[in-house]
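Minutes, project huddle
Topic: does the predicted pose make sense with zinc ion bound?
PN asked that the exact inputs be recorded in the minutes so nobody has to dig through chat later. Recorded below.
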Amino acid sequence: MPNHGPFDSRAGTAARPGSAATARPGAAGLGLTRMRFGIDLGGTKTEIVALDRDGALRLRHRRPTPPDYPGIVETIAALVAQAERETGTRGTVGIGIPGSLSPATGLVRNANSQALNGQKLDRDVAAAIGREVRVTNDANCLAMSEAADGAGAGHRTVFAVIIGTGCGGGIVSSGRILDGPNGTAGEWGHTPLPWMTAAEFPGPRCWCGRHGCLETFLSGPALAADCDGPGARDAGAIPARAAAGEDRAAAALARHADRLARALGLIANILDPDVIVLGGGLSNMQHLYAKVPPLMARHVLGDVARTPIVQARHGDSSGVFGAARLWDSA
Ligand SMILES: [Zn+2]
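Predicted holo structure (tokens), as shared on screen:
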């Protein structure tokens, strides 16, 4: 398949002349002259924002995400129609999903929202709203947003990670999402924890079928289980418990920070990003920004290890803002 650019949806749609999604009103040529709509398709809520040409937030709405696929497409179309009515303008549409489109089939894969898997989401939404849409995973959206006007602004290459209920990553370089022939660039969460100790090897079994994925060590549920045993899933109180003097909580946080440092050290050795941005629920744990950089330096080859590690500026909105920016690069 020829390379149609960094976005899954373009590869998926452009390869299918005659599909509904090729009815294209020249959205890419609109540049920043019109409104940009971003949609974050979450497991429970679907959110839309409108960013104007200056990047200012003009509108935000949320609706519950329906359990069925036709309902999801209808909800997205209804949110776009509502947003266009309220802003009085037509705009480009980008969608962030907790999964990706297969470059081979154009169908959604690896979404934790089961209704989406195996569906041609970009083409179905395009047919419903009468224009091409761009779809990518939520970590790429985080990277896009933070690189544009967030914690990664002014840096050339931004590696953004989500550490929350899951663990993912995205790369934006010179304003463009890096993606590749497999659509897997930045898929950091399902690579193994590097420099495993004997006690860590081979690591917990992951939902993806592998053992020892970073997600099984770094996500919120993984931290909770490491601290409080199998079945524990909420890591939210662990920092406060550690601060109150609980040794078990402090030890779990220390292991978690060391593992994150190893995982990011590997990224520095391969990609050497100019900045690493942390998003997702665990990015609120402030000790990470002090503890991880010196730990990471041990794993970066050579005599320099100065990659800044910073918290996402747009917080929970990074994904939806990034989705709105999916048409920023041609
Ligand atoms: Zn995995």
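Observations noted during the meeting:
- Confidence is low (pLDDT under 50) at residues 1-32.
- Residues 220 and 236 are 8 Å apart (CA to CA).
No decisions taken; revisit at the next huddle.
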